[in-house]
Amino acid sequence: MNKDQIIKIQKIVGVNADGVLGKDTLTAIFKKLGANNIRASELGLAANVHMRTYKILDNVNRFVHFLAQVAHESGNFIYMEEIASGAAYEGRKDLGNVHSGDGKRYKGRGSIQLTGRANYRKYGQALGLDFENHPDMVAYPSVGILVACKYWSDQGLNELADQNDILSITKKINGGVNGLEDRKKHLAKLKGWV
Hints:
Layout: H1 3-13, H2 23-33, H3 37-53, H4 60-73, H5 102-105, H6 117-127, H7 141-154, H8 157-162, H9 166-174, H10 180-193
């Protein structure tokens, strides 16, 4: 993102318009998107590290597409755990839910709503955290944003964001097109901010 884009978003979210995209600006963005003060602060601090690591802050398209998707998935950063019980995922072998109770235990969590025993195992191992035995950890905002960034990178979503391909991004995150219109609304709003 260039300095002018950062200054524009800083003015919109009400922080010092210094052209530096850091934890304070990111915290204000999460707050403006719906997170409460405590959650926004935790997300902003973690995002300042992880969004850089996974190259999401490298350009404006990556930034706005990422935020649009995770804002939708988390209900504007209000929910770090899926509202539904997870029973719908019971027995879903495609998600690695092979034991009784896996659907509920490995329901969607984090800002990207990581779902299924196989994904909890995969991302836990990749990040050096035991999500399979402690799935609730993914619901911690700082951990959830890390998982979202890693998932985003692993799925090649930076490259799709570079192409402005919201449909393909949505399919890779959701497995279908659920919530596509809401994701588009978030994206349009965020593009207007930069």
